[in-house]
Amino acid sequence: MYAESDNCIPNKKSCPDVPVIGTHNGTFHCDEALACFILKTLPEYKNAKILRTRDENLLKDCDVVVDVGGLYDPEVHRYDHHQRNFSESMHSLNPKNPWTTKLSSAGLVYFHFGHRVIAQFLGTSNQDGKTIKIYDKVYENFMEEIDAIDNGISTHDEPPRYHISTHLSSRVSYLNPSWNSPTQDTEEGFKKAMELTGSEFVDKVSYYGNVWWPARLLVEEAIKNRKNVDPSGEIVNLTKGGCPWKDHLFSIEEEHAIAPKIKFVIYQDMNQQWRVQCVPVRLGSFENRLSLPEKWRGLRNEELTEKSGIPDCVFVHASGFIGGNKTYEGVLEMAQWTLKDRPIENKD
Description:
This protein is of the alpha/beta class. The chain is built from 11 helices and 11 strands. The strands form 2 sheets. The chain has a 6-stranded mixed beta sheet with strand order 1-3-2-4-6-5. Strands 7-8-9-11-10 form a 5-stranded mixed beta sheet. Strand 2, helix 1 and strand 3 (about 50-55) form a beta-alpha-beta unit. Helix 1 (about 30-40) packs parallel to helix 4, helix 1 (about 30-40) packs across helix 7 and helix 4 (about 105-120) packs antiparallel against helix 5 (about 130-150).
């Protein structure tokens, strides 16, 4: 009637002091494995046993139930999404959230417990600005994919050019017994699925907390000081190169209604060489708000220095999205010259 995981107890009454997280038995998916992992990161569920069953008499005694039971009711900690009338998304549960993808059990657990979990990993408070930003980024770049795949939501409306079979949800599916396996026991696979999904979740939170967030602070400071670099306010100098800046630049521009928009970012690369890079028109685009001059593109060293009239030039990429100079003054002049020489339609 039921399957045990991690020495779970078959009935809450037999050990009332041990929390029980209930989920269904049989073939498992990424969402319930991750939902269980997220819950077990919280102090109140740290030592919880996982009860995998569809027996309603056993589920009703569980402290939390995910992905089974046909009920979504956070008041009694029931987080299923399979019922016919369920259509909740991050946006429907909180209109401040932009995401309209239907939630899986992992998404539901993340919505209700995510701020606490993120804050716990980061050593911040639930409502700290860092917690809130990273909560959003982890949903946008990790959790939403799991919600969408579990609910059968495609990323596109037409046939894809190729299929991706290495995403997290597919890797979890391979942990289930194959159809022709001599044993169909799923318990060991479910434990591995919790470990796999949990490891990637923690890695994602760690990246946003330890890499992405410090970069945001750096970009924020650079944008604040942009008019000290050039009076136009369209050139930003990053004091440390190599950090991920594009995502932050777009969001900070929008948050502070910055105008005119920033056109160039200058920085030293990992080899301490100065670079000037164009800001794209949008995140992920190969089109720039303003590209380096066409007549400089593809040139290097003395030829570029002579053509531009700017000392110590190193190169300009053939597409015009990035250039190099031996000095800070040189890359700054390359950006300033481009601003002065731009077409009228790019003066915004």
